[in-house]
Amino acid sequence: DTAVSQTPKYLVTQMGNDKSIKCEQNLGHDTMYWYKQDSKKFLKIMFSYNNKELIINETVPNRFSPKSPDKAHLNLHINSLELGDSAVYFCASCDTASNTEAFFGQGTRLTVV
Amino acid sequence: GNSVTQMEGPVTLSEEAFLTINCTYTATGYPSLFWYVQYPGEGLQLLLKATKADDKGSNKGFEATYRKETTSFHLEKGSVQVSDSAVYFCALKIYTGFQKLVFGTGTRLLVSP
Predict the structure, then answer these.
(1) B98 part of contact set with chain A, CB < 8 Å
(2) 3-state secondary structure at position B34
(3) Taking 90 as the threshold, does the pLDDT of residue B9 lie above it?
(4) Do B99 and A94 make contact, defined as CB atoms within 8 angstroms?
(5) Contacts of B100 in chain A (CB under 8 A)
C-alpha cells in the first residue's frame, strides 16, 4: 500500500548509458514532481506534471526527459549519463485542490561511474 | 518570486538541548508551510504543517508557528533526542495556476548523547 513508489532504489551505470527511473502514486493526486538531491542534500526541482501535462521545467539538460503516461505515473529517462548526474532522485505527488502536503518516494540513488 | 531560506547547518546539540532551526520565506500569495524530515538513507517525510497565518503545526514534540508578519516558520523542540538526528527541510506550497512546492536548502541536525 505504498503511496509513492520509485524503482529502482539503486542504479549504478557507466557514463554514456541511457537509463530510466519509474514513479507511481496510488493517492489519486493530480500533480507529480521530480527532484534531484545532491551530495550536500540540496533539493532541486526538475519537473512537475499536472494531469499528464508538463507545468514546470527548470533548467535541466535536455538529456533528461520526463514522461507521464497517465496522472498516476511520472517516469524519468536520462540519455548519455554523465558523472555529474550522480545524485538521489526523488519523485513526489500532491493534490492541487487541497492544502495537504506532498508525498515523497524513497528515492533512487543513481551512481554514474 | 517564491523562495525559502533556512539557516545553514550542521546544528550540533547535546541530548535534551533546546532546538531552533530558522526558516523564512518569500511568496507572492498565501502559501502553506511545511517542515519535512529526512532520516539517513530515507526519503522525505512530513513532520508538520501550517496552512494559514498564526496556525501552529506540531508533531513528535516539534512545533512551528506560521508568522505572516515576519514571514517565518521556525522549527523548535524543547528537548532533542539522538534519534532526531536528520536533515530538516522547510518548504512552501503555493498555487499560481498550478501547485509549486519550494524547498529550503535543508539543515542537518546532529544530536550527541
Answers:
(1) yes
(2) strand
(3) no
(4) yes
(5) 48, 56
